[in-house]
Amino acid sequence: MIYVFGGIKGGVGKTTVALNFVQFLAGGLQKDVLLIDADDQETATDYTAWRDSTLDGQLGYTAVKITGDAIRSQMPNLKKKYDDIIIDTGGRDTRSQRAALTVADVYLIPFYPRSFDFWTVTKVQHLINEIKIVNPKLKAITFLNRADIRSADNRDTATALEEAEGITYFNFPLLNRKCFSNAAGKGLSVFEFEPKDEKAINELNALFEEIIKLT
Ligand SMILES: Nc1ncnc2c1ncn2[C@@H]1O[C@H](COP(=O)(O)OP(=O)(O)O)[C@@H](O)[C@H]1O
Ligand SMILES: [Mg+2]
Asked: Which domain holds residue 111?
């Protein structure tokens, strides 16, 4: 399966959730996973470098940087070699994100409730409609990330996402939790970081188990 983390906003947690999903598949389910960093900011690549030093080379997955149309042209070959491919894209409607979406099975779009604006959803819907002309099998999923425990923002954003046509809202929010940045700073996933944050792990498992049911 080919999963693309994207959207048209920065800082919503695309890379963070993508990296934890890589570990869920590679470490948890023992899949052979390829992580493609398709963002020029290279956050996933930096994380992998930290991980390499923390774990002494035992990454548990393969990471490469590919951008632009090469994502599409290389995919037939890469698809044969890996169980799952995760593509992390930047926070804009880029050539890389479009190339990735033309070959993807699942498009995962996190939303940060506090910075939510309805235009972002509308723009994402337009992008999906365009991509579906060439890739009708694409499934687009939204979920909340960095949500608060109790907040009207969560509810308002969730309602807007639920009502958005052509996109499926997964009601498995990830709350705002310190362990995400603590773990990432060491090149570790939330599943691996000690002391373990069981609440965060449970939230990730609930979301990811729902995502892999799409296969
Ligand atoms: N659930 C979360 N709880 C707390 N912090 C988070 C969470 N998800 C992401 N972050 C933090 O938010 C910031 C932006 O995340 P990042 O994954 O880089 O976003 P994007 O890739 O969408 O630009 C990072 O500092 C990251 O540690
Ligand atoms: Mg990112």
From this structure: 2-212
